[in-house]
Every structure is written in structure tokens, then in C-alpha cells.
Design goal:
311 residues, five-stranded mixed beta sheet, 14 strands, 15% strand, TIM Barrel, five-stranded parallel beta sheet, alpha/beta
Length: 311
């Protein structure tokens, strides 16, 4: 096989959960919208561009709607874990080591019982991790993580911002991690595939908020890819492509301080609701067209890992 450093590779990764972006909270009804609208819309779009993607599921939505897992698995996409729950007070950067093990094992069991196939890829909810995650992943049989977003600078508008400062110094290309530090290169068995960023993140949320600035970010990242072969890792969510109703207009407070509430709840919510639903699909399609026109290979995280191990 051709060396991955000389190939143009794009990984389309999807976090699947019950978060209502419009209502700014977790709710089971949103899980139904993801099942009936978000997933079918994305899967049909991916079929048109022959994309094999990676879908990271919380154990909660997988248990709530097993079909939401089966529909992607049956179309040949990779299935991964997005932890057990997306509750902010159960994020991996605040869980103890034993709690991390429990969440990883439970989510793995739920999803593997649905597909009958082993899962090896993980992304933490809200990309929140701490130093324990590498050992926890290794002990529970995971081989790939995608929770780091190297040189991404908008972390102060999300929760877990202080630990995300480690993104500033994390390697930009995929790397096997240090056994005690997911943010550093080492000789551990877990491969970190960073979420693409160049100051701004290359993700679905930013794509919807500012398509023009997102294209600029993507074009800068493309120049880097031509220089060093860094793969694209684009993150999006099926719940960005659903059309749901606004309940009461109140913004749930999750931030512990007024500043974190203002930035992480109020301001972030106002930006994130732009171009939600079906109107986000043509914006995403333009991104897929770019990679198709530039002759990128679409890979899953597992495929990238297996190809890297062959070299």
C-alpha cells in the first residue's frame, strides 16, 4: 500500500447523541428525530459520495434506539463509542479512572450487542478527556481515540476549557500516544486521530455558523495536507440535520460560573442554531464535493489505523 503520508485521506466522523441543539438540552424526543431524520439524511448523502464514515454513539441513544446503530452498520460504516452518556457532569475529564472504565465497558457492551461486531474507536462526549483516558481505553480494548483537536482555539466557548488547553501543544498528525498522556506522542497502543483545526475547528457546527470562514479554514488545512499528508478529520452530528420544535425558549444553565454560563451556554447556543436542519445538507455536500474533486480517499478511523499498522 502507498504510504499514508503521501495519500490524501479524509475521515468523516459523526457523534450520535440525544442533544437538542435548538432546545439546548438532552431529550429522548431528539433521539427519535435523529433516528427518523438526521441519520437517514446523512446516510443518503454519504452514499451519493461513496463515503464510508465513522459514527460514535453514546450508549444511551444506542440503547434507546438500536436501529440508529444498525442503519449505519448495515451500510458499511464504522461504529464507535461516544461514551455512555452526554451529560456534562459525567464528562470523561471529571470521571475517576474506575468510572471511565465503567462507562467505556457499558457503552462498548451495549453497542457490540447490537452489531455483533467489536468496536475499537472512541470519541469522548464534548471531546473532554483527562490523562487517565489512554490507560482506560487500553484496558477496555479500544485502539483509537479522536478526542483531541490540535491547535484549536475556541475551547473557552465550550466546557472543560482548561484541560482543552492541552490542544495547543498536541501533535497535528495522527500519533500513538504516551501511555500516561493522550496529548503527547509516545509508544502506547492507542492511536490519536486529531479532529481537524487550524485556529478555528473544521466541524459541522462551524460549517453552519460561517460557511465562508469554514471554507477558508478547510483550504488552509488542505495546503498543510499537501505538505505533510495530514488527514482531514471532519466532525459533525446527525442532530445538526434535524428539524425540531422549540419548546420554551429557555436556555438551560450548565456552566458553574456566570462567565462559563454566558460563553458556554448563552453565546454558544445563539451561534449553534444557525442553519440547522435540512438546510445544512447542501452546505455539507459542498464539503464532500471538495474532497471528491481533490481525489481524497474517504476512510473510517479503523481503516486508517489498519493501513497505518501495515506500514
Amino acid at each position: 500500500m502507498q504510504n499514508l503520508n503521501h495519500k490524501k485521506v479524509c475521515l468523516i466522523t459523526n457523534d450520535v447523541e440525544t442533544t437538542s441543539i435548538l432546545n439546548h438540552k438532552l431529550r429522548d424526543k431528539t433521539g427519535r428525530y435523529v433516528l427518523e431524520q438526521g441519520m437517514p439524511r446523512l446516510l443518503d448523502l454519504y452514499d451519493r459520495y461513496q463515503v464510508k464514515a465513522t459514527f460514535f454513539y453514546t450508549g444511551y441513544i444506542a440503547k434507546l434506539h438500536p436501529e440508529v446503530v444498525k442503519m449505519a452498520f448495515e451500510r458499511g460504516h464504522e461504529i464507535g463509542s461516544h461514551g455512555l452518556t452526554h451529560k456534562s457532569d459525567k464528562a470523561f475529564d471529571v470521571l475517576s479512572y474506575d468510572e471511565q472504565l465503567s462507562h467505556l465497558k457499558q457503552s462498548k457492551d451495549i453497542i457490540e450487542n447490537i452489531t455483533g461486531s467489536e468496536i475499537v474507536s472512541f470519541r469522548a462526549p464534548a471531546a473532554r478527556v483527562n490523562q487517565n483516558i489512554v490507560a482506560a481505553l487500553e484496558e477496555t480494548g479500544f485502539r483509537i481515540d479522536s478526542s483531541v483537536s490540535s491547535q484549536r482555539l475556541d475551547m473557552f466557548m465550550s466546557f472543560g476549557a482548561l484541560k482543552k488547553l492541552n490542544w495547543l501543544t498536541a501533535p497535528r498528525l495522527p500519533y500513538f500516544t504516551d501511555k500516561n498522556n493522550v496529548f503527547k506522542k509516545g509508544n502506547g497502543p492507542v492511536l490519536e486521530i486529531p479532529i481537524s483545526a487550524f485556529v478555528f475547528p473544521y466541524i459541522g457546527t462551524f460549517m453552519r455558523i460561517s460557511p465562508a470562514l469554514n471554507r477558508l479554514t478547510r483550504n488552509l488545512l488542505y495546503l498543510e495536507t499537501k505538505l505533510n499528508g495530514r488527514p482531514f478529520n471532519f466532525l459533525t452530528h446527525p442532530n445538526e440535520f434535524i428539524d425540531e420544535e422549540l419548546e420554551d425558549g429557555k436556555i438551560q444553565r450548565r456552566g458553574k460560573t456566570y462567565l462559563s454560563y454566558l460563553l458556554g451556554d448563552v453565546l454558544r447556543h445563539k451561534m449553534k442554531v444557525k442553519n440547522l436542519g435540512e438546510k445544512a445538507l447542501p452546505i455539507l455536500e459542498k464539503e464532500l464535493m471538495f474532497f471528491q474533486n481533490k481525489q481524497f480517499d474517504f476512510m473510517t478511523c479503523k481503516q486508517y489505523f489498519e493501513n497505518l499498522k501495515k506500514e
